[in-house]
Amino acid sequence: MNRTSALLIGLSATALVLAGCSSSAEPAAQPAAATSSPTSSTSAATTTQRPALDLSRFGALPAVPQPTTDTVSCSYPAETPAAKEVNPPPVDTVDVYGTVDVTLATSQGPIDITLDRTQAPCTVNSVVSLAQQGYFDGSPCHRLTTSPGLEVLQCGDPSGSGRGGPGYSFANEYPTTAYTGDPAQAENPVVYPRGTLAMANAGPDTNGSQFFLVYADSVLPPQYTVFGTISESGLATLDAIAAGGVTGGSEDGAPANPVILESATAA
Length: 267
Description:
Layout: H1 3-21, H2 31-34, E1 59-60, E2 71-72, E3 94-95, E4 99-106, E5 109-116, H3 121-132, E6 139-140, E7 143-147, E8 150-155, E9 190-192, E10 196-199, E11 211-216, E12 218-220, E13 226-230, H4 232-243, E14 252-253, E15 260-266
Parallel strand pairs: 1-9
Antiparallel strand pairs: 2-3, 4-5, 4-15, 5-13, 6-15, 7-8, 7-14, 8-11, 9-12, 10-11, 10-13
């Protein structure tokens, strides 16, 4: 299963939960429930504006577990093929404290993000390594979702297909790791607030290079690693991208205004 399809299916399941909890929405109206294709329709589509979902029905992200050591070891098992050849990141003495500022220069404007090592040290270690090697440069942000309760822009696949990765994978971190004592709770949807930066995946522990930027509060199972935040100016860029809508007029697919991630520069 490719990462776009997996995130789509994960969001689809959440969309169905939302529809079941909201009297104002019908499951059939959710675009993610209708298809798991990573490509968007090019035909014209008529959409009906749905009212905002009652997000108070869902829990918040849990507290971030505090580290017990200053460094950790990470594992990045190989997978093939890679969308773009890069070296895997270092695996030993990976810092668990501090932040990293990254500027995403895109064709629609800059998106400044801050990566948080305490939330997800192995994820941050990988993303910084990929940025330093130019892995993201010139890649499209291939997916935009605009449905109530699910509003994200997905990037990080140089192939633009939604199937690409860096040739390795790694395990989930926060918030999944916050539920180790009660894993059943990790299946209950929570609100990923506006400004959250998280990893897309094809199921537990299959993270690669694809990530999504949350520009409006969205509801997901806590199975998508949170590893940073988006600046206010970055959110303004995302708002403008979202305002342009999705190709074909649907609520899920390629952005109508193409978004190219021209470079990712880690400070």
